[in-house]
Every structure is written in C-alpha cells, then in structure tokens.
Amino acid sequence: MLIKVPPASLPKSSEITAESVYLNRRQLIGASLSAAAMLALPACADASAPSQSSLKFSKTSFGKSEKLTPYDDITQYNNFYEFGTDKTDPARYAHEMTVDPWSIAVEGHAEKAGVYQLEDILKGVQLEERIYRFRCVEAWSMVVPWIGFSLSDLLKRFAPTSKAKYVFFETLYRPKEMRGQRSSFSTIEWPYVEGLRMDEAMNPLTILAVGLYGEVLPKQNG
After folding, report:
1. Apex CA 138: angle with CA 179 and CA 48, to 5°?
2. Does the pLDDT at position 4 exceed 50?
3. What are the residues facing 169 on neighbouring strands?
4. Angle CA(117)–CA(122)–CA(125) in degrees, nearest 5?
5. Are the C-beta atoms of 32 and 164 separated by less than 8 Å?
6. Burial class of 143 by CB neighbour count within 10 A (0 to 12, 13 to 18, 19+)
7. Cα(71)–Cα(115) distance, rounded to whole angstroms?
8. Residue 176's pLDDT band (boundaries 50, 70, 90)?
9. Which residues contact 82 (CB under 8 A, 6 or more apart)?
10. Separation between Cα atoms, residue 106 and residue 2, nearest integer Å
C-alpha cells in the first residue's frame, strides 16, 4: 500500500483548524503495503516554547520514571534533511512548509485504499502520552513524551490483505518549500522512503506521533 501526498490544492476541511492538523514524517501500507505519510504538522512560531495548540490525551505508564529531555533540545536538534543537514536547519526553515490542507493516499494490498483527508484519518482517535527513549545511530539519544496512538490501529482501518508484507512510507516532495530537496549538494534521492515489516508496524509499541509535551508537533519534528 502506498501513501502519497496530493497537491495542496485539495479542498480544506472545515472540521479541524490548521493548528490541529498533524503530520509526521518519516512518515502507510506497500511492497505489498506502502505508505507515504508525512503527518501534517501545524506551524510553530517559536521553537523554544510549546505552541498554543494543546492536545487531549490520556497518560500511560510508558517511561514514567525517565527524565525528560527539555523541549528546547527536542525541537531545535533535529534530523530533517528536507530542510538542511545541520541539526538546527529544521527549526530554522520548517515554517516554509505548507501543511494545510493535507491528505494521505493509501495504495497497495489493502481493501480500503484511497485518498483520505488527514483530519478524517485522525477523527475519533484516542490519543495517549508515551514516554520513549529515542536512540539515534549517530550515538545521541533523547527522552521524548510523545502524544499519539498505535500505528496498528490506523493500518487495521485500511484492512490490509494477506499479501501485505511491508509498510512503505514515502515523504512529501515539494522542493519549493523544502530547501534541502533542491540543494545541489544533497546526496539523498527524493522523496525519502522508509519501511517496516508488517510485524514491526503492527507491534502495539509502534506509535504514530502527532504531538509532544502535550502540544501539536512543531513542523521540524514531523
């Protein structure tokens, strides 16, 4: 199943305000189930403090004994090469990305493939806070209080068939708004793609994040 993001010319839903639209990147069904989902993120005027768009969520026991990484560090030290290779580039340039309206295309081995408005995808979802330790292969880590829900809950809604072996994610490709994609120095083939085996995607610990620290995700964390 492949999830692609159509142009921003699609009609805007009136049910959810722009600040409540989320997206996370890197990031639903393909190879047999693929997904290109960059969960749309609302704008964040100041990366040094939480936004004014609070989320309703329930607490969980995940990582409750962990010491949280400060909000400033989480939102200003990011890998998001669409905006540049320096860790501070995403916070500096992510505001240039348009995220409203946002839709997600689901293709592949799924009974309910199609194009969905993001707000419809998130409608009725029960959000919860999970504190996970994020470990990067670059040898740094953060403890992040993510807000989201199990990816498996979303995949089940598309009814993947027995032929679906992987979940394939394809990110937004919009060079005019994402300067890293138009850089002549980039060695990455755009759009960026990533994937999970179905057993990994359906594991209840795999979270689809739409917020952190109780607020909607800032764009640089998408």
Report:
1. 55
2. no
3. 194
4. 160
5. yes
6. middle
7. 34
8. very high
9. 171, 172, 178, 179, 180, 181, 190, 192
10. 5
